[in-house]
Amino acid sequence: MPRIEVSREDFVLFAGATGGVGQLVVSKLLEKGLSVRILTRNAQKAAEIFNQKVEIAVGDIRKPNTLPAAMSNITCIISCTGTTAFPSARWEFDSPPNMIEWGLALFDLDQ
């Protein structure tokens, strides 16, 4: 996979920053000295999480008319909407395969 170079002059728009994965990724971007603007539905929550380390734009990815204001001077966009850093059973719609099923799949014994 090719490496994408991002410089400190780049301005990253980040959707999903207040979620678990988003918080982790934004912290890494800030560690690298990048400027980050987050797109959030809840400015108060974002302010509490990021303590004035990011620029906050209020908007919703499901409402296109809220997005243009967040786009000014943006060079990169990252979205972690719909992700979770803390997997739980509520996201498991199918049970994981057991050891026998893994063996059957690995050795293709069903055919």
Kindly provide the radius of gyration, computed on alpha-carbon positions and rounded to a whole number of angstroms.
Answer: 19 Å
Low-confidence stretches: none
What's the rounded overall pLDDT mean? Answer: 82
Helix fraction by DSSP (H/I, runs of at least 4):
25-40%
CATH uppermost class of the domain at 11-82? Alpha Beta
CATH-assigned fold name of the domain at 11-82:
Rossmann fold
Question: What is the approximate shape?
Answer: elongated
How can the largest sheet be summarized? Answer: 4 strands, parallel
Describe the model.
The chain has a domain at 11-82: 3-Layer(aba) Sandwich (Rossmann fold). 26% of the residues lie in helices and 17% in strands. The protein is of the alpha/beta class and 111 residues long. The model has no long low-confidence stretch (mean pLDDT 82). The protein contains 3 helices and 4 strands; from the N terminus they run E-H-E-H-E-E-H. Strands 3-2-1-4 form a 4-stranded parallel beta sheet, with helices on one face.
